Amino acid sequence: MKSIYLRCTLYYYIKMNFSYWEYKTWLSNIDFTIVGSGIVGLSCALKLKDKFPASKILILERGILPNGASTKNAGFACFGSLSEIIDDLKSHTEQEVLQLIRKRYAGLQLLRKTLGDTTINYLPYRGYELFTLEDKELFDDCISQKEEINTLLQPIFKDTVFTAKKNSFNFQKIQSQYIVNQFEGQIDTGKMMEALLYKAQAAGIKILNNTTVTSIQNLNTSVKINTDRFTFSSNKLLIATNGFAEQLGVQKIKPARAQVLITQPIKDLHIKGTFHLDKGYYYFRNIDNRILFGGGRNLDFKTEETTKFGQTPLVQHQLEKILGEVILPGIPFEIEHRWSGIMGVGQKKKAIVKQMANNVYCGVRLGGMGVAIGSIVGTELADLL
What secondary structure does DSSP assign to 254-284, as a single string? Predict the structure, then answer.
């Protein structure tokens, strides 16, 4: 009896923290509640507002800023390296791989059209895939299949995608050539998310930060949503939390942490582009005369299958080692900042966009391609209604 009384008192206290005006304005008569204010969540909200202009839309976000990968990624405007495409063809049909690439490329075009290249600082610096000296077999395999893949992608890009080029950036301990993707570019992740948040707020979409959804109860005509701060009801619930989606009952998705670091500014930095190394498990780029470098979860997949942010000595040591020996040999550098993001992955690379139950929907499992497909997955999620 005492525990019941305490629970009731606590719920009463949490609910009564809101004034009548606050509860009426933010937490009543909600048509659509979206969990997650990343690329998918915001794109979904904007599409819903376009489809249903009079609707009341609320986004719940667990972090101060979008928490997951949307504000923590490397800002690669990419759709898959040559070795990744070749590897995908081993576990997916040719048609499935083409659909993946077509969707990624279409998603990038949608993002650029929605926000504008100037706004997101899109730069068509091309993408480069590097191969270590130990990866000669993989390199030879990519060279031998390059034209076959180019032919496969011709219907999408109407041009040659992959070419081979000599090592002009003076990287060390790699094969003498790397594979160049002329359609790859880079964006400013912060500017992208700032622009999406601005568009959402300008459209009258409400966002509550520092609010974690703890459970949901599907009712006949609505969904009861429990958070760590309050409880309320919404006509529809859309889950867009990607790597955290398993916590809300979405199956066939696992979290994958990606650790990242960035150097202090480097004088006369000669590197320009987005770069993939070791089958894409490592990636780096130039930004503001710095090198942003991330990856290494393949060193310990089990540990990196987590929703906890942070770094590990194993990965960070390897990142610094590759940075000094391969990327910036003989060039002094200092690390200024380190962070991590949480991706959503699974056995299949196709995103999960579906109705989970009456009034509950999800758009998750972006597989590390959030920049590419986030906008289009958000649009598809909204179109389920």
Answer: EEEEEEEEEEPP-TT----SEEEETTTTEEE
Listed residue (37, 72, 62) closest to 206, CA to CA: 37
What is the side-by-side strand order in the sheet with 177-181?
Answer: 162-166, 177-181, 127-130, 274-277, 282-287, 290-295, 254-263, 335-345
Return the closest-CA partner of residue 271 out of 354, 221, 329, 342.
329
At 229-268, the pLDDT tens digits run 999 999 999 999 999 999 999 999 999 999 999 999 999 9
CA distance 208 to 198: 14
- Alpha-carbon distance 95 to 100, whole Å? 9
Q: How far apart are CA 270 and CA 127, in angstroms?
A: 15
Instruction: Give me the phi and psi of 372, to 5 degrees please.
Output: -75, -45
Angle at 340 between CA 335 and CA 342, to 5 degrees: 165
Residues of the chain with pLDDT under 50: 1-14, 16
| Whole-number Å distance between alpha carbons of 346 and 379 | 21
Report the amino acid identity of residue 190. Answer: G
Residue 355: DSSP 8-state? E
Q: How far is CA 44 from CA 91, 145, 200, 256, in A?
A: 30, 38, 10, 23
Provide the pairing of β-strand 57-60 with 206-208.
parallel
Give the number of other Cβ atoms within 10 Å of residue 66's Cβ.
23
